[in-house]
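Interim report, section 4.2 (structural modelling).
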Amino acid sequence: MYRTALRNVLAHKGRLLMTALAVLLGTAFVAGTLVFSDTMGRAMRDSFSTSFSDVSVLVSARGSDSGDPGDGPRRGEDEAVLTADTVKELAALPGTERARGVVSGFTAVADRNGNLVGQVWSSRGANFVPDASGADPRYPMAEGRGPRTAGEVALNRQAADKAGYHVGDTVRVAGNGTARDAVLTGVFTTDDPQVTSGGTLALMDTATAQQELLEPGRFSSVVLTAKPGTGEAQLLDQARAEVPAEGAELQTGQELKDEQAEMVAGMVSNTKTVLLVFAGISLFVGIFIIVNTFTMLIAQRIKELALLRAVGASRGQVTKSVLVEALAIGVIASVGGLLAGIGIGAGLQSLLHAFDEGLPTGSLVIAPATVVGTLVVGVLVTVLSALLPAFRASRIPPVAAMSSGDQPTTQRGLVIRNSIGAVLALPGLGLILTGSNRTGTTAQLMLAAGAGLTLIGVFVLLPLLSRPVIALVGPVLAKVFGTPGKLARLNAVRNPRRTASTAAALTIGLTLVTALTVIGNSVTSAVTSLVGDTMKADYAVNMANGRQLSADLTGLVAKADGVKAVSQVDNVWWDIEGVGKDRAIEGYDAAAFDQLVNLTMESGSTAALGQDQVLVSGEFAAKHQLSVGSVLRATAAKGAPVALTVGGVFENSEGVSPIVAPNRLIEAGDPDPLVQQILVKGTDGPTPALKQAIKDATGRNPVMEVRTMQDLVDDFNRNISATLSLMYGLLGMAVVVAVLGVINTLAMSVFERKREIGMLRAIGLERRGIKRMIRLESVVISLFGAVVGVLLGCFLAWATLRVLASDLKGLTTVIPYGSVLLFLGLAALVGMVAALWPARRASRMDILSSIKTD
Amino acid sequence: MSTSTAYAAHTGVAAARATGLNKVYGEGETRVVALDDVSVSFGQGEFTAIMGPSGSGKSTLMHCMAGLDEVSSGSATIGDTELVGLKDKQLTRLRRDKIGFVFQAFNLLPTLTALENITLPMDIAGSKVDQAWLDRVVETVGLSGRLSHRPAQLSGGQQQRVACARALASKPAIIFADEPTGNLDSRSGAEILSFLRNSVRELGQTVVMVTHDPVAASYADRVVFLADGRIVDELHHPTADSVLDRMRRFDAKGRTS
Ligand SMILES: Nc1ncnc2c1ncn2[C@@H]1O[C@H](COP(=O)(O)OP(=O)(O)O)[C@@H](O)[C@H]1O
Ligand SMILES: [Mg+2]
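Predicted structure of the assembly:
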């Protein structure tokens, strides 16, 4: 019995090849993910732990800067806890071999044009601590020497190379204050993972570092190296007595390593989860192919199986023989997948390394869990998918062996299936529709649950949908492609179950791709119109690290060549009587306002700003029954009362706060408002010359960004499009599996219909016609899957966007018709490509052998 | 080696003709001579039956003359067209425009209705259907009420009638039928055979039918006998008895020789 099963595998190896490939691809994805993330994780952990090799105990000032540029400007107000004295005391501990006072914080380095080198979040500065010989073992100089005075700086190799600096050059650096020039005295190398992974590190002498990054006499942390024989915990106990418990945190080197390991594990596991989700999608798509293959194989072998039953095989034996076949394929494919996955893991690592040399590398980690997991998943998926076909095989009555009917035309009704589908899809749709009208977590949960139900329901209903949807293209097919077109359509709807499970693979992929694209596109266009509709300024100036702009900057920008109008944007949060506490108010220069901001006025005019009056949004006005002439009583941050007279009402705009005031009025209440942005209008529009002029006028601070409105939008959209590209790439895998499925189904259908094809050839259909017929069938099935996927994706995106709209006003569903058409075009192409081989095979089929009666 | 010939027995013009046709399958030990120097011609408006024991080369002869199979040597013509040397595309066109087929089974596409199956060759050619002719054909086969049915909804006899109607509808130069009644009960078979005979008598169609059934052969105007790939005899105006009688003689001859 089992020998029969295995012999079947060998006999049908051609037809089982696609199934095996589908399983192989899915498992390769799983194994690749596991190998890659394990390897990356190990490499990162190794690289982090070497950087802590000389740390026995780390004493860090609580709340002290750890290089995070997001801290507010209020740092330095709390009491200094780690001073030079602290370092000395710690150095004097009996267990201390060495104590190093570390100063560290945000420091940006400019290239020759005054632009930031590297990324804001990985731009750091620290102090250089020379020993007696003038060297710092932590930062060995590759060229030159370490910085000794305020006008000197040393850079890490990568940063210096990136900006093209050599020892002796003048380098512009900026901490949280203004930018200053320093002479590059040395270029160093370091194994600090934050630096090796592409960061910038500028070293200064300790006094300058304290001056620029903290305040004189202060340290951010002290690194203690224990004497031989002193344990880390022991040294920690000794150190604890020397520092105030309140302001400092003590950690042993081991604790730091563990913390890092945990952090790395967290990072890696996030990536791993995302990748595994996509691997899961590929495997899920594979399930449809496996089910299809086995169903078709069994249909073709109906007589053979009936004969087995007739000569005495039990139902169980028939079921088992099919499952053994599946098991064999599962094992072969999973082993292949595992090997391919290890290759993918290795490939990914070297690929990443090629892109970013800073990433740590290490030897490939193939954990036992990877091997076991991959094999178990692959085999289980295959065998479970074959379960239903196997069960059906066992229901074949022995008498089927005697029946003369050649083709198993008995098609089970779809009533039960459709009912199940409706029971799933309808409540799913209901949940989505209800959820889309709500906000918050409940809405999100409803959407997620609804989307899941609807997706499954639609998959179950796909056979039902196939006829009407494909009927839509019928007339076109018949008209454009004649008889082959007509036959293609009829063949496509001939076996709705088969068509559905072939198309389902593409439906899954397209649903996800479309939903992501529509959401991405909608958010992008919301942001674009937000910026584009309200902002007329040519440039916006702000700090890359999100910090406050210094008070004198607006004046400096105004003096730059080619500047026509300038306004800083004041931000204050005042309590307003009858409205509420901490209400955001933005302040603009009254004279420049019209040239920088575009508001449509419902009543009053922007000129009111010139009379120290405020403008309010229509929504705000309606809510608080305000009109031109109304007065709001506000209390500024420091308690000063300010009267806000409404001078105009503007159409709601997401680009400005609901209350817009002139700078003068704001500064009357709060002389030191938060300023994060300066808007600039140039005489000749946004020209590079104007940008350079602004940079030059403001001291070429590398932290300062001068961006056009388009830059703002682009910077925002870059993240979205990067995410989308990644998703497309990952979903591409599922599409490849889907293509295999289409090839597989077509090849088997062609085999099943060889008599028909022979007959068509005999009565005069050319080879070309046969090819066309198969190709069109493939295209029709692919497009069917794609159309359902696109519609479903758009619908899900619409529902998601409605929920998101509560966070981002002005967010509406904007369907990128171009992309949608492209997807459909690609799906048609997928159909064409998948049909190449089956169509060729069909057209080459020998007419005579296909019409032979026996 | 004498040429096996059944030439010019008919009067008038040949609708199809084979001259010195040889067909060899396989090589070396597996070599089978399916047709051995066969020359035969089928006259226009004539109903010819090809008879012979199983494996005698009946189907092979039909396939070669209908452009479904390549000949090893010799010549085969349909009307004035020489088939030998034609490319696949030209052969396909020829079959589509000049030849009608009725096979033993799998004549119809299950996805098309009876009517669509009948007009299929014309649809493939993209030519216009002669409605008056189509009506006449449909009426003659007696399918008027069933044109919108699919093959699965028709009996075996009805399916073969649809196949006959399809073969006739495009007014081909010749119809080849390979054991068209092989799968049918005797009543349905008789219907098909009378229908084929009527199409010759009343519509002037040329029909060549392969059969191993003497009763079926008796519907024809002329019977050509094949044995071991050679034409061994022919009979005009056959009856079931005369055919059976001839066949017995071959058997006897075969045994004694
Ligand atoms: N494709 C083939 N390959 C090899 N031999 C064949 C092939 N087709 C037919 N034959 C052989 O040619 C001979 C004639 O076959 P056929 O024309 O089918 O006979 P009939 O139709 O009279 O029963 C037989 O001996 C058969 O075995
Ligand atoms: Mg035969």
